[in-house]
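Re: beginner question about structure tokens

> Can someone show what the tokenized structure looks like for a real chain? I only ever see the sequence side.

Sure, here's an example I had lying around. Input first:
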Amino acid sequence: MKADYFNRIDEIYSQVEKKIKEIDYYDKVLESSQYNLMSGSLFKMLPKLKYEKHYDVFNGIQLHNTLTKFEQTSEDVLDYITIENLSRETLELLKNNPCVISTFHFGSYRVLNKYLVENNISYTAIAPRSIIESDKECFEKNMFIKGDAKFIEFEAPNVAFQILRELRSGRSVFVYLDGFRGNLNNISSECAIINFLEQKLYVKKGIIQLASIANVPLITGLSYRKSKNDVRLHFFDPIQDDKSKDREDFVQDTLENVYNQFSYFVNQYPEQWEAWMYLYKQMVIETNTQEYEKKEVIDFNNSQLYFNSKRFGIFKILDENFLFDRYKFISYSIDENLYKSLQRALKYDLHKVSNIDNSMIEELYYNNILVA
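And the corresponding structure tokens:
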């Protein structure tokens, strides 16, 4: 029922808001590696987004992940979704021809699967082994035509052969273009480098190569939440192999095209992209030795200093303490005393600290970790 669906949405919003207000939640987030790496990616990719908004993006990702988990099991979610830019011709392609169906971990990112089921469209899902093992039962029940679930493990040594076999047999395959949760191997040969927002990214190119070889269209669908109770499923125009181009040129142009269209939604709704949490694995980090500004000489005994938390963050991994530079995207191991001093600084103003000697204060200041 409509009331039940929207009541559950209200409950999820309330639960997430309640969690955000918990004691120490803010401090725990700011001192987590997950937040700092996400913030560093935002700093690089969306430099116009104010640092103060990074915390909101982090919380928004938690919210939209929770909404996704609910909506992927909701039987009537499609009754409340608006379909955008899906022509009759594109729908016929999906129904009657093998396609590479792609999406991003954005918005309520499982509603595309439910839309395919609603339209009796069979497909084989390409996913990491860990995701298949943990969520297979849920996927089979909610995101495939009954009795028609098929998977290909992303890590399988013959994954390309399996995908081609599915496409040539007349069956579509489904893939996330931003699926970089695991470690990357052979990154130079497996990936293309594309321009995306304010950064260069490594992106997987194999699925586009296989679409070209099999001569099937790439059809990308993207879910996004325009407002709390307004979920959209937007389709990009199909991209068919261009025989007038060299295959590598076609692959590069296609990836640039799709990511360029996607960038509009990322700019509009950055908090809806889960991949901020692991995007650092894809970024081409260019060495830049230039600092923001030259530091003026000051009298440390008579100056009030502050931790430059917009540029630097702190986090722990097991028992090791780290200082993270969002500008250079580098982590530095630091001792417990310095960690605790900077930790206090996230809560209070930082000036001269008794347990940091003058030489350390000067080094921190001239490296922009402390500012006057």
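Each token stands for a local structural state, so reading them left to right follows the chain. Residues 300-371 form one domain.
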